[in-house]
Amino acid sequence: SLTDSPVILRILQNWVPRVSHYFDKEHYTYAGHQIVIQESIEYFGAVVWPGALALSQYLESNQEQFNLKDKKVLEIGAGTGLVSIVACILGAYVTATDLPEVLENLSYNISRNTQNTNMHKPEVRKLVWGEGLNEDFPVSTHHYDFILATDVVYHHAALDSLLATMEYFCKPGTVLLWANKFRFSTDYEFLEKLSSIFNTTILAEFPESNVKLLKATAREN
């Protein structure tokens, strides 16, 4: 339930400042690995948002509660790929998805940060929320242990499609972890809709960043 007390955290400043203006490279350290992320100012999806930092930090710190080792993980709206890279470092079989125009930078970051390691090789795929789900990700062969999503809710027209996509992938036994900066009434309205479909708990709040981290699971019929 939403009444459980979430843990109150702050996002740790574990990166070094950017230098260039056009393509920014941000350096992070999670789970003992240095991660270098190339950002692009051309697309929303190509910048590291606070929800990604919050979820990456939480996954690193709560490996006993959420053990990703050898689990199948799908990230929707993967953006720069930071969360997918962290999940990969933590041992998951990761599929990182986003819109076509984001995939080149996403693929670059993921391959750069996961090559020459003994991690499971991540997959990068196009996923337009609410479109072609049955064709591209048939339920019979695509079951995920975890669905990860960060800062996917903001002012855009695809919120219903996003919710439908979460519902499609979040089957019984799947855990959805969603971290988001809460700015607008639409963010809270989305949370209400999510809570009407799933069992929802606020795991953590990062008040300085206005980020909430939620866990959602399918309701038993």
From TrEMBL:
SUPFAM superfamilies: S-adenosyl-L-methionine-dependent methyltransferases
Alphabetical list of InterPro entries matching this protein: Methyltransf_16, SAM-dependent_MTases_sf
Pfam family name, one: Methyltransf_16
Gene Ontology molecular-function annotations: methyltransferase activity
CDD domains for the chain: AdoMet_MTases
Keyword terms of this UniProt record: Methyltransferase, S-adenosyl-L-methionine, Transferase
GO BP of this protein: methylation
Domain of life per record: Eukaryota
Protein's name according to its UniProt entry: MT21C methyltransferase
Originating species: Eubucco bourcierii
